[in-house]
Amino acid sequence: MKNSFVKILLFVAVFTNASCSFSQNKQASEGPVVLISTKYGDMKVVLYNETPLHRDNFMKLTKEGVFDSLLFHRVIKGFMVQGGDPQSKRATREQVLGDGDLNYTVPAEIVPGIIHKKGVIAAARNGDEDNPERRSSATQFYLAQGKVYKFDDVPSIEQNINGRIAESLFLKYKSDKIDTLMLFQMARNKEGYDKLLDKLKQKAILETDKHPVKLTKQQIETYTTLGGIPHLDGAYTVFGEVLDGLAVIDSIAAQPTGAMDRPLENIRMTIKVIKE
Known about the structure:
Elements: H1 24-27, E1 33-38, E2 41-47, H2 52-63, E3 72-76, E4 80-83, E5 105-106, E6 120-123, E7 136-137, E8 141-144, H3 154-176, H4 178-186, H5 190-210, H6 217-225, E9 238-244, H7 246-253, E10 270-275
Antiparallel strand pairs: 1-2, 1-10, 2-9, 3-4, 4-8, 5-7, 6-8, 6-9
């Protein structure tokens, strides 16, 4: 895996908005709960029943002790804190982290209406070009910090989301036409190559414009009060949220970092199940 937000290539897929009735608050009272412990405190995290594959995978790994002593190896203040790389357990200070994983991935469970509000736990993954199905890392996850937005920011948030939707669609259309594009390259037909790419870009823009994303009132309220990372909505599987201990995310995110956003001081975790 690419050292990353492994994974967090910043563009977004189309997602249902105004018609969605799913409530993250409702779900938070129903799923299993785990406790993520760090030297900066504990976070009580509920796992959503709406994302059963990720829920069950995280519970299984937690019970097996897979996460214990792993590091939060990538920290970006105002964005997220990421951990779960198996290679981080015994990593040297100079070791580059972010590529470690188990020998499987988890199918995407991107649920309409589950947004990247502050405190959600989501699965890291490889980017769309290498991973068009948006399958999740088995072990690597991130906790969203993000920022609080102003009401005046809403149009630019929506514009950014729709632009990334168009970019994602363009990559899909490009992948579908890869054989034709390769033939143009082999024939050194730059004009034909460029024309086809432009056609695919325009197709992606037109398709996006048919059903542009608009944030719901609830989403606007969340992002202008609690905050979060709206430009990741619809692109990564969010599978739970912090019920208690949000300040721990802020404490981890505030730590000084070095190369590849790795904290200068190791921040280890342990995770245990506190409610099945």
